[in-house]
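Good morning,

Attaching, inline, the backbone tokens for the sequence recovery test we're adding to the shared suite. The designed sequence is right after.
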């Protein structure tokens, strides 16, 4: 699945794609938010969770740039 195809999915379908197609790379915690990085083919998706409420807050997708920089030591290219 390419990023464009992913973005055309509904919100529910996007989360289903992350869980079924995504490979978990890393999770880090910033204050009370856990941020998990998943890779799906040629793009990445960060899922933000509220640790206190155990709820998903939102997700962000990207291919490169600053968002990816903090994970570079965890990703095997």
């Amino acid at each position: 699945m390419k990023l464009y195809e992913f973005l055309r999915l509904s919100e529910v379908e996007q989360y289903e794609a992350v869980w079924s197609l995504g490979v978990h790379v890393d999770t880090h915690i910033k204050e009370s938010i856990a941020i998990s990085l998943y890779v799906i083919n040629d793009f990445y998706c960060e899922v933000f969770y509220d640790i206190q409420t155990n709820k998903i807050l939102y997700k962000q997708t990207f291919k490169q740039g600053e968002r990816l920089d903090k994970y570079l030591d965890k990703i095997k290219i």
